[in-house]
Amino acid sequence: MTVSTGAPHNVSALTTFISSNTPASTPLTHASHYHHLALQVLHNLQYQHDWTSLCIHTHSPISETSKLLPRPLISGLPPHRIYVHPDEQVELLKAGLKEADGEVEREWVLPTQLTEKWSLRRFAEVFDAVGELPERPEGVDGGEGVERKDVRDEGQKSRGKGEKRRGGKRVLLATVNDDSTIVYYIVHDGIVKPRQN
Fold it and tell me: Exposure of 189 by Cβ count < 10 A (0-12 exposed, 13-18 middle, 19+ buried)?
């Protein structure tokens, strides 16, 4: 007589995505939980928010020695602009254009967990290691096939290397809660600690 141990275990799409994009033989550059966190955020951006051309970065793109980033960062193209500088808003209004008419820019995404404590020093380490606009590494698929190429990426006006964007450096802080919900906040370089009254 055979005893059934229950229904077959179904694996979630996210679990399958993480396990299929985690190298088994190649050692990871960061702790595995940072890599898995980046993959979880990348999955959310790709399948829930329609981002394209996603790529995981493990080394600083501005360091000549390819210095290791404090943690894996993601770059990609959102389906629409996520931030319009106030000066640019004025120019768009004067020209009779909408914010949606502006050029979509590649964005940095910093995966974090809600339980982490972030200080100004930790944010500064991230901002010091990245450029204003992420560049998609050529020949790199973002970590075992996670990059998804899109027509918009090909047609995107490319800024010159080191060209400044209005508002300076920024990252999209992706905060993952214990229940797997993800909240996104725009964080600019130059944030200051609030004054104590």
Answer: middle
Q: Which residues contact 78 (CB under 8 A, 6 or more apart)?
A: 49, 51, 104, 107
Residues sharing a CB contact under 8 Å with residue 174, sequence separation 6 or more, in sequence order: 41, 44, 45, 74, 109, 110, 111, 112, 182, 183, 184
Q: Which two tokens stand for residue 171?
A: 């990252």
The predicted structure's pLDDT at residue 148:
34
Q: What is the pTM of this model?
A: 0.76
Tokens 């590494």, residue located: 137
Per-residue pLDDT tens over the stretch 115-153: 999 998 999 999 999 988 887 656 544 333 444 333 333
Query: How crowded is residue 76: how many other Cβ atoms within 10 Å of its Cβ?
Result: 27
Question: How is residue 37 written in tokens?
Answer: 């966190």
Mean pLDDT of 169-186: 94
